UniProtKB/TrEMBL annotation:
It is found in: Cytoplasm. This is Selenocysteine-specific elongation factor. PROSITE patterns: G_TR_2. The gene is selB. Translation factor necessary for the incorporation of selenocysteine into proteins. It probably replaces EF-Tu for the insertion of selenocysteine directed by the UGA codon. SelB binds GTP and GDP. PANTHER family: ELONGATION FACTOR TU, MITOCHONDRIAL (PTHR43721:SF22), ELONGATION FACTOR TU-RELATED (PTHR43721). Residues 1-173 form the Tr-type G domain. Keywords: Cytoplasm, Elongation factor, GTP-binding, Nucleotide-binding, Protein biosynthesis. The keyword Transport does not apply. The keyword GTP-binding applies. One of its GO terms (molecular function) is translation elongation factor activity. The lineage of its organism: Bacteria, Pseudomonadati, Pseudomonadota, Gammaproteobacteria, Vibrionales.
Length: 601
């Protein structure tokens, strides 16, 4: 199993030196970093776990001006090494960094007292005691602590063993909980071009595997891209495992079309693609107040953008109207940063994505406020069911009893039945086949939700599908027919009133498929092995019967005039109508047995 750990702590407290001692890798890659001796952007390294698997290490900047880069570095971590220099002790930015760690929901933290060679044992004890007190006061727990000197390699082997032991004991449960809620995804932290390879991105892979050749969705654009190659810790691989640092060469996208903060996803349905979110604020770690209609900066994953904030009176809920669209996940941690500065205003969890209609807002706010402090995916489903009558199903472990499953969506029985009735009413009223897009506007259901519902209704024989169009009727959908049956049906459609003459067509297996098409209600057989499309036959019946009373007689010439059929096809059609009980033959005429309003019932 792969892991990723990261550093946190005040600037110049020895984080980069510690990583170099642990891994043998200098994480400074920018000229400014080497010149100033300070981490500005994220740095990356790794060492080998005791079982031989790599442990990725992210070097997070400590200076307050680069707080956004810190958030981008810690979002995916299995563990944090919180570094405090023995010669300086706890500093203001140590407090700020610990607040960030706590606000991101990370509790697998080890306190590392660095530069131990610069002080005596009494000072070491004082620094450690103060740091542990700060942890208890700010984060609510006391972490393990390790004393090291990167300069003298003192305690480095012990720290490495400690990291491996903590990862093995802690990560499984926490990672499984996250994987239940989020499928394979990677927030991009770097974008560049490699000669001979093309557009390449890096990030921490979470929630599932990526494979060479796999097609992924680049959000928030929704663009489909393909994995050309994968590299992890300087090794070319076929499959990338979570959680690990991964470099991905992408096919189907140019470098200028990808940005830091974009998210690669295995499933399009996995997250929210929104320009508006509701965040449930913690309100405990930070004293700064969020002013209504003010501009703040919001950061989650490796993404950050400006946003207008609206705090709901009497609640800890805030609506954020993002300046640019983003990809986020339900219950994902987010930080609010002062616009134009580095002060953290507040933090919280994303509890809703997308704009909410005014008629639903008050009810939604009540439901969100009633959620437990540690919500599960079931709570999100329950809120959706209460609000709309449907919710995303996905791969989550849910008790689905009492719900109607339609693909990736669950419906209440009431919503399912009401929607079915509305669809039947609309299709009957319009008297034409309609697409998902057309029906979505009429029934006021999102297209992805309605598509799942329509497919379920088709499978249950309550609707029929022809291409992208849906209509009333039972039987299987045209989309479910065999390739041979589809070929026959297409030729039948092209023949129109000339009819499909089976003896003249040389299609292997045609007779069996024709019988199946008749049985499923797609075709009507006439004398002489002539077949009409069912819809065409129904139209001809209506043309002949319309306006006539029961027991009224009509001549063959009248029927030909109404339908435009030649005698070759007119007689077989009339004979079929007689066998179906519409008419009966009286000498050379035909007598109506059923009225026109029942013809298409």
């Amino acid at each position: 199993m792969s892991y990723v750990v990261g550093t946190a702590g005040h600037v110049d407290h020895g984080k980069s030196a510690l990583i170099k001692a642990l891994t043998g890798i200098d994480t400074a890659h920018l000229p400014q970093e080497k010149k100033r001796g300070m981490t500005i952007d994220l740095g990356f390294a790794y060492f080998k776990h005791q079982d031989g698997t790599p442990v990725g290490v992210i070097d997070v900047p400590g200076h307050e001006r680069f707080i956004r880069n810190m958030v981008a570095g810690v979002w995916s971590l299995d563990m944090v090494l919180f570094v405090v220099a023995a010669d300086e002790g706890w500093m203001q930015m140590s407090t700020d960094h610990l607040k960030v760690i706590a606000s991101m929901g990370i509790d697998n933290v080890t306190l590392v007292i660095s530069k131990s060679d610069l002080v005596d044992d009494d000072m070491l004890a004082l620094v450690e005691e103060e740091a542990l007190e700060q942890f208890l006061e700010i984060a609510g727990f006391i972490p393990d602590s390790v004393v090291v000197s990167a300069h003298q390699q003192k305690g480095i082997d012990e720290l490495r063993q400690h990291i491996c032991r903590k990862l093995d004991n802690h990560s499984n449960d926490a990672r499984q909980q996250t994987a239940v809620q989020r499928q394979a995804h990677l927030y991009i932290d770097r974008v560049f071009t490699v000669n001979g390879v093309g557009t390449t991105v890096t990030g921490s892979l979470c929630g599932g595997e990526f494979h060479v050749g796999q097609k992924l969705i680049l959000q928030p654009s929704g663009r489909e891209v393909q994995v050309k190659s994968l590299q992890s810790y300087h090794q070319n691989i076929e499959t990338a495992q979570p959680v690990s640092r991964v470099a991905i060469a992408l096919k189907g996208v140019k470098k200028k079309e990808v940005e830091r903060g974009f998210c690669l996803m295995a499933s399009k349905e996995s997250g929210f693609i929104v320009d508006e979110v509701i965040v449930r604020l913690d309100g405990m770690l930070f004293e700064n107040k969020c002013r209504n209609n003010s501009e703040v900066e919001v950061a989650f994953g490796t993404f950050n953008t400006l946003a207008k904030i609206f705090v709901f009176k009497g609640t800890n809920l805030a609506r954020l109207r993002l300046k640019e669209p983003a990809c986020c996940f339900w219950n994902q941690r987010a930080l609010l940063i002062q616009h134009g500065g580095s002060s953290i205003i507040n933090c919280g969890a994303v509890v809703w994505g997308g704009e909410v209609a005014k008629q639903h807002r008050n009810k939604l706010y009540d439901l969100l406020m009633a959620m437990p402090d540690q919500p599960a995916w079931e709570d999100y489903v329950t809120i959706n069911m209460s609000l709309y009558g449907y919710a995303k199903r996905g791969d989550h472990q849910l008790d689905e009893s009492g719900y109607k499953a339609c693909g990736d969506w669950l419906f209440t029985e009431e919503c399912y039945n009401n929607s079915h009735q509305m669809l039947e009413s609309i299709l009957k009223q319009e008297q034409i086949d309609l697409s998902v897009n057309e029906l979505s506007g009429k029934i006021q259901l999102p297209m992805n939700v309605l598509s799942a519902l329509l497919q379920q209704l088709v499978e249950e024989g309550k609707l029929k599908q022809s291409g992208e169009l849906f209509s009333l009727g039972s039987g299987r959908s045209e989309a479910q027919l065999s390739p041979t049956a589809k070929q026959i049906l297409e030729r039948m459609s092209q023949a129109e009133k000339q009819g499909y003459e089976a003896d003249k067509e040389k299609i292997p297996g045609a007779q069996k498929e024709l019988r199946n098409l008749v049985r499923l209600g797609f075709a009507v057989p006439l004398e002489g092995k002539i077949y009409y499309e069912k819809a065409l036959y129904d139209d001809l019946v209506n043309d002949i019967i319309e306006g006539r009373e029961v027991n009224e007689r009509f001549k063959i010439s009248d029927a030909r005039e109404r339908t435009g059929l030649s005698r070759k096809y007119m007689i077989p059609v009339l004979n079929r109508m007689e066998s179906d009980g519409w008419i009966k033959r009286v000498e050379n005429d035909r007598q109506v047995l059923r009225a026109a309003e029942t013809a298409l019932a």
